[in-house]
Design brief:
alpha+beta; Phosphorylase Kinase, domain 1; Aminoglycoside 3'-phosphotransferase, Chain: A, domain 2; 2 domains; five-stranded antiparallel β-sheet; three-stranded antiparallel β-sheet; 46% helix; 17% strand; CcrZ_PhaseVar_Mediator; Phosphotransferase family protein
């Protein structure tokens, strides 16, 4: 990594699950570097959804390195996820035609509920399926599959965890880590966010700030997608032997099912 920056730079890992992110620092500048980011990053930068993209360089081995301007700030706290700036930025993302056009050019096609269910059923391990709450969740997904079909599609982040929201010291909000972005029903993002961070009695107010009214159809779509995402995350944590995190997600699955 130092070879493409020149002398005077210190480079160290930025953390994260992929191990492909780095921080580069010299006397005058600080950059966030990532190996093999999607071309989608340029459009996200142009839309003001992620920090500014400074440059892109291709290495001799074919890897592509992107550099973004480093901004001092912090991740959002869980209690801040029900605030208006989060709703406004998520609405901007879901309504963005440049984002949608770019994902389509990259070969993404809309992710439908039946495809989501098939993928989860294919990948989940039998010992997880034997857990009563997981079995109950699959029954819910199958029984309500035909009720949550929607013609509404948008670019969805698909992992709106509070630590993916960056609030800069200047008060600018960004949503980062777009590796899992999909074209899908925006209820994927909405359901995960509301069930995780917003008390049920505040859903109508939050959705009003986002630009929607809560009705039975939207509520069913959000619940279905919240459950499907939890099942995917449970399997992912199991595959990484993160059993404590997996157990916490199973407890949250029970809460969503009972809501």
């Amino acid at each position: 990594m130092e070879d493409i920056l020149g002398e005077g730079w210190d480079v160290y890992p930025a953390g994260g699950a992929t191990g492909e992110a780095f921080i580069a620092v010299n006397d005058k500048q600080k950059l966030f570097l990532k190996r093999n980011s999607s071309p989608f990053l340029a459009v996200l930068s142009a839309e003001g959804i992620v920090p500014k993209l400074m440059w892109t360089r291709r290495l001799e081995n074919g890897d592509v390195i992107t550099a973004q301007h480093w901004l001092n700030g912090r991740e959002l706290k869980q209690g801040e996820m029900d605030k208006e700036p989060v709703a406004k930025l998520l609405r901007k993302i879901h309504q963005s035609q440049p984002l949608l056009s770019m994902l389509k050019r990259l070969g993404k096609s809309p992710l439908r509920p039946e495809g989501i269910l098939t993928e989860i059923e294919t990948n989940i391990e039998q010992d997880i399926l034997n857990i009563p709450k997981v079995s109950q969740a699959f029954s819910f997904l199958r029984e309500n599959l035909l009720l949550i079909e929607s013609n509404e599609t948008a670019v969805c982040h698909c992992d709106i965890n509070h630590n993916n929201w960056l609030l800069t010291d200047a008060g600018k909000l960004y949503l980062i880590d777009w590796d899992g972005a999909m074209i899908a029903d925006p209820a994927i993002d909405l359901g995960s966010l509301l069930y995780t961070y917003v008390p049920r009695e505040n859903w109508s107010d939050w959705l009003e700030r986002y630009g929607l009214s809560l009705d039975a159809g939207l509520e069913m779509r959000m619940k279905w997608h919240a459950i499907s995402q939890l099942l995917s995350f449970i399997q992912w944590h199991k595959s990484k032997n993160r059993l404590e995190e997996m157990a916490a997600l199973i407890e949250r699955l029970g809460y969503v099912l009972e809501s």
